[in-house]
Amino acid sequence: MRHRYQNRIELLQGTLDLLVLQTLQWGPQHGYGISQSIRINSGDVLDVETGSLYPALHRLERWRLIKSEWKTSANKQRVKQYQLTAAGKKKLLGERSRWDALTAAIAGVLKPQE
Q1: What is the radius of gyration, based on Cα positions, of the chain?
Q2: In whole angstroms, what is the distance from residue 52 CA to residue 66 CA?
Q3: Which residue among 21, 46, 57, 107 is the one 20 to 30 A from 68 at the CA level?
Q4: Residue 55 DSSP SS3
Q5: Could you report the per-residue pLDDT of 18-33, keeping only the tens digit for each?
Q6: What is the DSSP letter of 8?
């Protein structure tokens, strides 16, 4: 059990928000679909648990970066589907630029030019 927790990646709030916004850029999703998309696209490295995901979704919706509506899924279940808003798209662009600058800066420290 201890080994499982050693390998768990803790996501910072801003990073999780970025991942959720990016996932919704590809189209509307319900919560489980968002978590699965993040897991699959990260090569099974990032596993966003519901205790982190739903507070992030509620926060992003409160900030009007995403919106939601109730839908009926293919298997006839009622699900809340989330969608990126225009403000969310704008925020995503800014956050992606900041992320790119941050990763470039970290790479510069880890692999400095000779």
Answers
A1: 16
A2: 16
A3: 46
A4: helix
A5: 999 999 999 999 999 9
A6: P
In this predicted structure, what is the pLDDT of residue 114? 61
| Sequence spans of domains, the chain | 2-110
Distance of CA 56 to the CA centre of its chain: 8
Residue that has been written with the tokens 């990073």 in this structure: 15
Query: Is pTM beyond 0.90 here?
Result: no
In this structure, are residues 60 and 66 in contact, taking their beta carbons and an 8 Å threshold? yes
The one-letter amino acid at 113: Q
Determine the angle formed by the axes of helices 13-25 and 50-62, rounding to 10 degrees: 70
Hey, how many other C-beta atoms are within 10 angstroms of the C-beta on 46?
Answer: 16
Give the residue ranges of the chain where pLDDT is below 70: 1-13, 114
Strands (E), the chain: 29-30, 66-72, 78-84
Give the whole-angstrom CA distance, residue 74 versus residue 64.
Answer: 27
Alpha-carbon distance of 50 to 9, in angstroms, equals 14
CATH class of the region 2-110? mainly alpha
